[in-house]
Amino acid sequence: MSHRWACLLGQPVAHSLSPALHNAGFAAAGLDAHYEAREVSPTDLPSAVALLRAPDCLGANVTAPHKQAMFSLVDELSDEARALGAVNTVINQGGRLIGANTDAAGLARWMRLADIDPAGQLCVVLGAGGAARSVVWALFDLRASGVTVLNRTSSHAQRLVEELQPHLQRNEPQFDLYWDELTEAALPAALPCQIMVNATSLGHHGAAPEVHPSWYSPLSVAIELAYNPPETGFMVAARAAGARAENGLGMLLHQAALAFERWTGQAPPMGAYEAALTEWLAA
Ligand code: NAP
Q1: What integer pLDDT is reported at residue 12 of this predicted model?
Q2: Nearest CA to ligand 1 atom 20
Q3: Which of 71, 120, 124, 208 is the most buried (most CB within 10 A)?
Q4: Partners of 39 in the beta sheet?
Q5: Is the CB of 85 inside a 6 Å radius of any atom of ligand 1?
Q6: Rounded Cα gap, residues 103 and 87, in angstroms
Q7: How many angstroms separate the alpha carbon of residue 129 from the centre of ligand 1?
């Protein structure tokens, strides 16, 4: 096969990290391929997606505002994409387009590598947007015993629970999904939790949800999904309360690496992805 390509479809895309990551990945794997960001309006999305069926196209990443609109433009949806209500990766399989979502699997893979194990634990997720859905899915996948979703707008938390619950069924161990208001996190906890994830967009804006220190013990891990800035108020407060704190770079890295894996069928060159990420952060 001659030169191959993949792209990012979104609006805006100018500041995306994806071209740096995937071009480094393609080069390190010795693939004759390139990746580019394509600024596409909602009106132009169908014609941009039609181009992905070309034999030399590996697939695409999809970002705002197109993650839902992709549902009606691909030929097949993965279970995760359907349940999470968002496509972030398209795979070209012989001209058929598969809509997938690598956020939850990327987070789960990073958590395993980072030795963060929610098995048998009741976890807390702050926020109820697209990222929070992926977190709940990943925690289910890693065999958490349950998740409580706390959100500013309680109807959004309730909707997340109602929509995801049918997809998160198993016999053993049982999985429970609860919801409540974000203000609950500011109150003393009945018991510390082992894993608390901030999936609100506050960290991205230099702010933090208020979390009472009693939610944490030295066994707790606080995961901030934002990565820019790399250190947030949520992380600082968690550390001050004795917990381990991590940002969203691991999830970011592994959701991208999983897209590479699904496009090429090869193991992603993680060293190249990590180096590209480090370089991008330093710049
Ligand atoms: P989203 O769908 O827009 O959801 C935003 C969430 O933040 C909602 O739950 C919203 O609550 C809450 N929120 C917004 N402003 C708030 C405020 N002032 N006070 C309290 N809660 C507030 O966004 P998303 O796509 O889920 O992304 C959430 C975060 O995850 C962002 O920081 C994003 O950068 C990060 N993220 C990271 C990765 C990664 O790879 N590391 C991947 C995806 C996302 P309401 O429902 O009340 O509006």
Answers
A1: 95
A2: 152
A3: 124
A4: 10
A5: no
A6: 10
A7: 6
